[in-house]
Write a structure and sequence with these properties.
By secondary structure, the protein is of the alpha+beta class. It is built from four helices and five strands. Strands 1, 2, 3, 4 and 5 form a five-stranded antiparallel beta sheet that branches. Strand 1 and strand 2 form a beta hairpin. Helix 1 packs antiparallel against helix 2.
């Protein structure tokens, strides 16, 4: 999965949705029905990424997200079982950043994430740094 591609696709959908021409009206002055579905960063970018982690990192106890998953504070939190590994944040251009978190607070430098391989490597480093025991 190419994270950069996901964020670029989201940015295109965002622009198409919010920059579409709303001046056209139908008969009797009714507005035309909007053709572009409202983009949702959580649904379109965050959840697909998080839902790949159980397959890519089975040894750490990641599970797929549920419909209850939401942003918490400033971050989309990444947890493996009960271990909070880090969180995603985004900038004004919809670039994705991973920040290591400990007890909900940033405990390291943010990294711009462009690929799933890069994310997996950073998560491995976090587990090694914290000496978290693997499932098994």
């Amino acid at each position: 999965m190419d994270i950069k591609e996901l964020t670029e696709r989201y940015r295109d959908r965002f622009d198409a949705h919010y920059l579409q021409d709303d001046n056209g009206t139908g008969r009797k002055g009714r507005k035309r029905k909007k053709e572009v579905e409202t983009p949702n960063f959580l649904k379109d970018v965050i959840r697909p990424i998080l839902d790949t982690l159980p397959d890519l990192l089975p040894e750490y106890g990641f599970t797929k997200t549920t419909d209850d998953y939401a942003m918490y504070g400033e971050y989309y939190r990444i947890k493996a079982g009960i271990v909070l590994v880090g969180g995603f944040s985004i900038d004004e251009d919809f670039n994705l950043y991973f920040t290591p978190l400990f007890h909900g607070k940033a405990c390291g430098k943010s990294h711009k994430i462009d690929s799933i391989g890069q994310l997996v490597e950073i998560i491995h480093e976090q587990f090694e740094r914290r000496e978290v025991k693997m499932k098994g």
